[in-house]
Amino acid sequence: MEGPKVSYRCNVRQYFNEEMLTYKEATTLSSFDDALEELKLLKENGKYTFVLIPEGEVVDPGDRGYIGRHRSAFLRSSKDLASLVSKISGVMREIFAAEKVIAKAWNTAVGAVHQQADKDSMRALQSQPNGYEITFTLLNPQPSHVRASWNIQEATKRYLSPLLSALHDYTNIKVKSQYLHSTNIGVRPKVDQVGGYALNIDQLPHIINPIEAFLGSHVSNNPNLNFILYIPLRDQSPLFIYNQNGEKVASNAFLSPRWGGFLVHNVRVEENASLPVDVQIDERPVMQVFAAQLRLLLGVSPLHHGLAVEEAPAGNAVITDWELDLWLRSHCLENLASSVATLNSLAQLLEKIGNIVINDDIGREVERAVEQIQISHTALSQGQLRDAYLSSRQAKQFSEKAFFDPSLLELLYFPEDQKFAIYIPLFLPIGIPVVMSVLQSLKYLRKKNKQKME
Fold this sequence. Notes:
Helix content: 40-55%
Structural class: alpha/beta
Radius of gyration: 32 Å
Strand content: 5-15%
Number of helices: 14
């Protein structure tokens, strides 16, 4: 299947007076980027600005260039137009549009076979029209020794609300929290060389299963992402996670693809301390780790472009504006590819099983899906990224609703070749006496006709 085609439209202009005023007042490229965003001259998804700055200025981007947190790139102006155009093209295609990323998203959605393992696509959740659920769990196996508490509601508001607000118009994310006591990870750590305890990389997959049954993530039909803060047992503390090279993991955490994250939080308990020890969790380093893991699980992965350009970190925003555009673009293509594949599967199913009756409700869902696919295509071609994504999300909902309609599922397990296996045991015992009676009647009639002729 042919991949997505990307086209660009560009124009060149002089600066506006408001932009020049902010430029003169800026002391750093970051502050200049934020000031341009406040002007609200360009806030549409999928539209970007390249600002060319002369060499030697206060906010000189240098030879490398600078990618802001919003939708602007800052490059040093040059008389070598060919080199400048090449750099602009590289930033546009490799970072803002990320053609390789969206091509990968399309190929993954249509079922193309990758030449090599793709960690990013295997790690991130697929696009979900109904949204996601996030559960933060404080796992304390020894509440009799450590009485831990955290203000997860305030921490979520402070450190994750920018990300949740950015995605609010495009997906529904519900956040929950819970305490889980007297439940251990079920893995025996090994003693390390410095007197602590170690969890090796081969032990990490066995940590999830013993605790998953207690997390309650099965109560929802939506995908659930679990983020666990684990306080080790007193006789297994301090506990550290080691990577495949035998080195300590700096974050003391690991990520489970499409499931969530796990963070070990060591608590120091003195020998003669009165038990239980009250511990107030410092949420800031914890949420920094969980926010980084959440980015990866939602598909906001670092770009491997190889360009010598500086990128502004997302900071407290968790996700930059151009990363949000990339997320919308790749998930839009994923939704469209999934919708088309679902409708094609439905058509093939109808050709294979001819006795399926399509009722009016299914027909309307198919028509709505096709309509939303066409609307999304049109919006994409016009650069209306937000509208394109919302239409693609509806297309996926309508196509899946049509394919999984209960009236179709009833007939999927009753094909033509199984009718004989069902009906023969019912009618064969009745049919044999009937056939024998018919044969006896025919013999009698023939014999009677023969006697009359004689």
